Structure formats: C-alpha cells, structure tokens
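Researcher: We're teaching a course module on how sequence relates to structure. For the next exercise, students receive a sequence and then see the predicted structure as tokens, so they can try to spot secondary structure elements on their own. Here is the exercise chain.
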Amino acid sequence: MPDTVTLQDVKSAHALVQKYLVKTPLVYSPEFSEATGSNVHLKLETFQRTHAFKARGALNKVSSLSPAERDRGVIAASSGNHALGVAFASALLGVRATVVMPTRAPAIKIELAKHYGAQVLLHGETYDDALAYARTLAIEQGKALLPSFDDLKVIAGQGTIALEVLDDLPDVDLFVAPIGGGGLVSGLTVTLSELGHPARVIGVEAEGAPKMLESMRAGQRLKLPHIQTIADGIAVQEPGKLNFEFVQRFGNEILTVDDAQIFEAMSRMLHDVRVVVEPAAAAPVAALLFDESLQNLGQTICCVITGGNISQELLKQVVQGQLSKEGASIV
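Model: And here is the predicted structure for the students to work with:
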C-alpha cells in the first residue's frame, strides 16, 4: 500500500461524503474577525452527521473493506467521535461494529455510539488504553481494526473538508485545526499540497496533551507518560505514525492552548456564534484568540470546528461561565 494520499483518494472519499453525509456550513464570523484582525470563517462540523467530522474518515474506511472483512465485523478505539463515525458508517453499510472507549469518555458519546448501533466496551482511562485493548480483541476475534487517525483511508476522508472549504472560500490563506492523533491536519495538508494550493495548516493541541509538538521537537514519535486536559477529543498520548510523517514532511506549525483558554473559546462560540462546541473543537478558536502569532495577520482564515458532542454538565458550566475542576479533565 502506498504511504501517501493522492488527490484522487480524497476526491473518491468526497463522492462518498456527498452521497451519505452533509456539506457542513462555512460561516463568516464578524466577532472573531474583529477580535483577531483577520477574516475568520468557521467550518462547522458540528452540523455533520454524528455532529463531528470523524464520520468522514470512518465512512471512507468502512466502505473500503472487503466483503469478508465486513462479514467478520469491525472494531475501533475512540475517545468518542470516531466511535460515533464507525457506528454510523457501519450501520449504514450493514456491518457489525464494536467500539472500545475509555471509562472516562463523555457519557453523551457513549450513549450516542450505542444509539447508532455499536456494541460499546469501556476500557482504560485514556484513548491509548482503549486502543491497546481494541488491538487485542481484533486479533482474538478476527475483526478489522479501524484506526481513528493513523490510516490513509481515514486521512483521505478528513481531507474532504479542504475540498469543501476551497469550493466556498478559494482564497483561504490559513487553516487552523485541532490535533488529536493528527488525522485531520494530515488530511487538510496533503489535500492542499496535491491541489498546489498555498494555504498553510496550523495544528492546535491541548497544553496538557502536546504529543505532536513534543514528537516534532524530538524528531521522533513520543508517547507522553501522562496527559490531562478538558479536551477529550484530542486527549491522545502518542501521534499516529503516518500522521507524524505527514506533519514532518509538510512542516506544519503546532500551537498549544490551555484548558482555561479552551473553555473561554467554548463560551465565545456559544455567546458570539450561538453554536455549542465540545472542548477539542474550541481549541483552534482559542489559538486565534490567545496566541500572539495569530493576531493581526490580516489573512483569510478557516477554523475547523470539529464537533459538538458535549455533556450536559460541561455545557451548564459553559453557560454559567465557570469551569469546575472536578470531573472535567482526562488523565
């Protein structure tokens, strides 16, 4: 299998997305544009099926399986949104799905995965714990393991976001997107490269889970011994192998934001844009608002708002404007 993603791969994935999923809105934000000194647009994957961008890569991966693999069923590990994508895509294509999620995954994501038809197993405290268990089960049960980010089909699926943005905003200068394992940033970057488009892609990590940043500094993939962040969707200890290679190859800049900044960005999204977002989805907005390197660029910027699956407890805190220290972090 080739170790890259071609433009045709992304276009093929986009044909599936157009058939089964939603072309999500790209909206101009006067509030964030004024606050940052740039022309800010928001790609609202909160309005995607499953309310998260992960449905794109999951659908592309499940659709690529052989009949024999589909018959045996699939298994995936996820902190939440990939589980929803796998559950949704599998139900759509008639495949039995099992998803392994950390015990501290948000209850709303666990319940939605069940609602979409997946068998849900809870194991470990982190995504990486869940992944190790899913790998063991995949071997024992003969099921296809569907990676959350470290997979060319998944990366191509996430790259469809770039095609949609360029269709509506061809003169975009900069994409800002969150980094969990790196699938989204990889997909955006390789798609732009294949198209010969000059837009840059900046990835944003939680300060409490800076696996890609630390790996880039070390020149090799690192697994962080400890992570702690409100942003469950990007609470990953180790970047994907393919994803790290893509980030290295294309020289993506990586920024970090802390939990307080993420929470403030969630609040601003709710009150200024009237859109509910989960913590990981607020990370790129937090970078725009608080990182000096992104202030007053005078550029056309697309923030990829990756999902809106947030617990009622955390949403209540956002509405009240006060983040509780109990139960809000993943370790």
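Model: If you want an answer key for the exercise: The chain is about 50% helix and 15% strand. The chain has two domains: 7-53+151-320, 54-145.
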